[in-house]
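Support request from a user on the community tier.

User writes: "When I paste my structure tokens into the form, the page sometimes reloads and wipes my input. The last time it worked, I copied everything first. Here is what I submitted, just in case something in the input itself triggers the reload:"
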């Protein structure tokens, strides 16, 4: 099942196919999504989930507090639902 992701603050929307990470899907759709290592090491792709949930094959290194705040590694995250994510601070 595909999932819909809205990227704030620009409100860009893209589709994530089954088996794709959020980052892969964004890059496939030519969005300028920050990234470098693609393996959860550099933290360039960190963004915050405003709504929705993701799953990981390999749990990234996030503290409980960071998880509660919604931080996500886009290069490792598989959406479990439609998502709203942000690079903004609010
Ligand atoms: S691209 Fe490096 S942690 Fe995601």
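"...and here is what came back when it finally went through:"
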């Amino acid at each position: 099942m595909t999932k819909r992701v809205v990227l704030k603050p620009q409100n860009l929307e893209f589709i994530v196919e089954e088996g794709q990470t959020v980052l892969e899907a964004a890059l496939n759709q030519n969005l300028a999504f920050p990234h470098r290592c693609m393996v959860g090491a550099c933290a360039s792709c960190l963004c915050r989930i405003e709504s929705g949930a993701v799953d990981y094959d390999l749990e990234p290194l996030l503290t409980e507090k960071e998880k509660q705040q919604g931080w996500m590694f886009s290069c490792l995250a598989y959406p479990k639902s439609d998502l709203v994510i942000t690079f903004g601070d609010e």
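Agent notes: The reload is a front-end session timeout and is unrelated to the input. The mean pLDDT is 94. The radius of gyration is 12 Å. Escalated to web team.
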